[in-house]
Amino acid sequence: MLLRAIAALSVCIVHIQMICNLHINSLIDYLTNLGQQGVVIFFVISGFILPYSLYQKNYVLKDFFSFLLRRSIRIDPPYWCIIALSFVLGAVPVSLLNLNSALLHFFYLVPFVKGANWFLGIFWTLSIEFQFYLLLGIFFPFLMRIKANLSILILIGLSITCILSRLYYHGVIIEQMPDFVIGFIAFMAYVKKISLTKGLLILFAFSAYLMIFVSIKTGAIPLLTALFILLYKSQKEIQPLYFLGKISYSLYLIHYPLTLFLVGKFSLYTTNKYVLFFGCILLSILGAYIFYLLVERYALKLSKVIRLSR
Known about the structure:
The chain is an all-alpha fold. The chain has helices spanning 2-20, 26-33, 38-56, 64-89, 99-106, 124-145, 148-165, 177-190, 196-213, 216-231, 239-246, 248-266, 273-303. The protein is built from 13 helices and no strands. The longest helix is centred in the last third of the chain and has 31 residues, at 273-303. The chain is globular, with a radius of gyration of 20 Å.
C-alpha cells in the first residue's frame, strides 16, 4: 500500500502541476517531474504481486481465461466509468467519441492503430498492464516449470533484446519490459526460488546495465522499488499513506479529468496557481475516495468471485 500511495501521489502531483501551469524554480520543477516515475513503480509492483498471486494459487495454463476475466473485472469497470465521467465533465470533447474510438479503448488497442489517440493520456499505462496480463498468463507456468536461474536469464535476455532493438512504441510493453522483469526477479527472491543474496546481486547487476546503457532513472527507480519490496519489514501502517494506497487506482484514474474540470472552473475566480494546485490535489483525493466507494470497491469485490481451478 505504501508504494502504491507514493506512486499514485507522485503521478497526481506532476500532472496537476502541469495542468495548473505552476512553475516554482528549475530544481523544484525537476524534482516534481520525477513524479512521472510513479508509473514505473506501478509496473514493478505488478511484476511482483501478480506472479506472487498466481504462485499462491498454483496457477496453470487452463486458468488463463479465468485470470484474464478476474483482472478485467477488477480494472475495467472503473476505467469505463472514468471515460464516461471525462465526457460528462468536458475533460474530453464528445466529438472524439465514436464506435471506432470506443472499441479501441475497450480492447486497449489504441497503441496498435496508426493515428489513434487515447481520450486521456493516462490510459496508456492500462494498456501496458493488460499486455502484461496476457504475457504473464501464458508464460507463467513455463517460467515456474524450468529452473529459476534459467527463467531469470530468459527474462533479462528478453529485456536486453528489447533495449538493443530500439523498437520503442509508446504504449507497447517493449519499453517497459525491464520494469516488470525487475518486479519478477524480486518475486523469485521473495518466494525463495532463488536466495535473497542472489536476488539482490541480480537486481543490482541488471539495474546497473540499465543505468549505464539506457538512463540512470530507468535502472534506479525499479531497483529502489524492488529493494523496498524485499527489505522493508515494518508492520506499522502509516494511516494516511495506507489510505492513499487503498484508493491509488481511483486516484490515478480520476485526478486528470477532474483537474482539467476544476482548473477550468476555478480559474474564473482565482489566478493564484498555488491555490489551484493544492485545491486540485485535495479535491482529487476526495474525488478518488468517493469514486472508490461508488465504483472501485464493487469491482474489487466482484473480481474475487472468479476462482481459478485450484
